[in-house]
Amino acid sequence: MSAPADGTERIYVLAPMQSDDVPEVSQLERRCFSNPWPESAYYRELREPERNYYIVLRQELATAGEPAAEREDARGPLALLPRLRRPVRLAARPLVGFAGMWTLYGEAHVTTIGVAPEHRGLGLGEVLFLTLVSEAIRRNAEFLTLEVRVSNRAAQSLYEKYGLTRQGVRPRYYSDNAEDAYIMTSPSLRDPAYRQHLLELKRRLVERLARERIEIVERSA
């Protein structure tokens, strides 16, 4: 997907996942993955917010003739990204992405991340991943880890961009086809040099989103 031909901006809303989101998340996950979680797994994860962190991304579709939204300063984990006030009149907000992780004993572990196929190629997966990294830092985790299919080079490239390296293999990790998973781990999230690298990656992401005429709105709920 590329920038709209008419030059209009696309607005995406990033917010914590709520129980009401779970049915839509489950539907989208089935479009993204061949081995989706049951809905009950998400409800269970959401019951422990002190340990688990889950987010959703929705496209905000404004009605025709809506006035331009005012900009305001961002204060969340993506503080360098553009942020808008809530538009006055709204239409549907389709779910286009989701992500989650748990944190325990100084480790943050990414459990899931997915973007609707028709919204891929815009940097939205990177927005979700960067939000998880930022939250892991806020929770004082030292490292971030994850598993990724050995065949998923696109995801591996994103994680490598953020400094994650392969630390091992989990044989036959995925139940749908017995595919192996790479175990990938970040540098120390407490390292000042790595945090500086994250700032540079944020800056580049801001530039990419601007080229795509995408606005990210962060909401606390």
TrEMBL record:
Residues 12-189 form the N-acetyltransferase domain. Transmembrane segments: none annotated. The keyword Acyltransferase applies. It comes from the Bacteria. Keywords: Acyltransferase, Cytoplasm, Transferase. InterPro entries: AcTrfase_RimI/Ard1, Acyl_CoA_acyltransferase, GNAT_dom, YpeA/RimI_acetyltransf. This is Ribosomal-protein-alanine N-acetyltransferase. It comes from Thermorudis peleae. The lineage of its organism: Bacteria, Pseudomonadati, Thermomicrobiota, Thermomicrobia, Thermomicrobia incertae sedis. The gene is rimI.
